Amino acid sequence: MTFKSGVRPSGKGVSTSGGSRRGGGMPVMIGGGGVGTLLLIGLFVLLGGDIGSLGGGTSQQNQSQNAPEGFDLAQCNVEGAVNEIAECRAAATADSLNALWPSVLAEQAGLDYSMPNLRMFQGNVQTGCGFASSDTGPFYCPRDKTVYVDVTFYDQLERLGGSDGSLSQMYVVAHEWGHHIQNLEGTLGLSDYNNPGEDSAAVAIELQADCYAGVWASRADKGADAMLEPITKEQVMQAVQTARAIGDDHIQERSGREVNPDAWTHGSSEQRQQSFLAGYTSGQMKACDTLNRGVYN
Ligand SMILES: [Zn+2]
């Protein structure tokens, strides 16, 4: 068990689609150049306008079509579904994030919170930042303030050595929520995957999102309104295992390449672990100040 018994997702801001697998023209995200391969395992942020340049594809074609029905969220309205079905868990995680961030953001950064949307899709999806496929991995689009998740990504995570444990799956959603927080902070635009490297803004933004996921986790099981049962050490270790699995050095090793910090966009396994834990152990945004802004209370 992870969510307390009785928890049902509200469905607020959550939508699903089956995507639309087009014949012929393939999704645009996996493009040529060095960037494409890095996008495979993301948890990243898409800044609109860059998509076309990554793959050279067009993003307009599907815009007016109705997306096929996706997962039916009504399936989440039975006891235990939030702990058994990945889509339901993600939808409930969104509720938990939306419950916690308003006060944290106001108290620690002096900012108002507005909730993002969560779109769960399969296959391909049209977004405010262009056309994307599941190969992209989970991502956040600031233009439509939406977190996009294809839950089959969790299987991919496992193959990479990550965990498909409950907190691990939630960490993925919470990381993308972190990008939404950065959007509200006005810092998200600093992310630039075309200028990677260990000390790049892209890495700083990604590590901060990991840390913000930790801030959420540190609070999600506390207080009378907590939706989660107390998080166990084992669950934390599973989230850490996943954070390590998607470290840039690990991904480079797995793909048979040399470890090259100059190509990093998300940070090393060690950095990602430390960032998540920095947020988790402190519960404080200021522990996540990878951009050295010094603005947090
Ligand atoms: Zn990210």
From TrEMBL:
Q: Where is the composition biased (Basic and acidic residues)?
A: 247-260
Q: Return the annotated region ranges for Disordered.
A: 1-25, 247-271
Subcellular location(s) of the protein:
Membrane
Question: What ranges does the record list as Low complexity composition bias?
Answer: 10-19
The UniProt entry's GO CC annotations, sorted and at most eight, read: membrane
Q: Give the bilayer topology.
A: Single-pass membrane protein
In its UniProt entry, what is this protein called?
Neutral zinc metallopeptidase
Which organism is this protein's natural source?
Answer: Corynebacterium meitnerae
The record lists the lineage as: Bacteria, Bacillati, Actinomycetota, Actinomycetes, Mycobacteriales
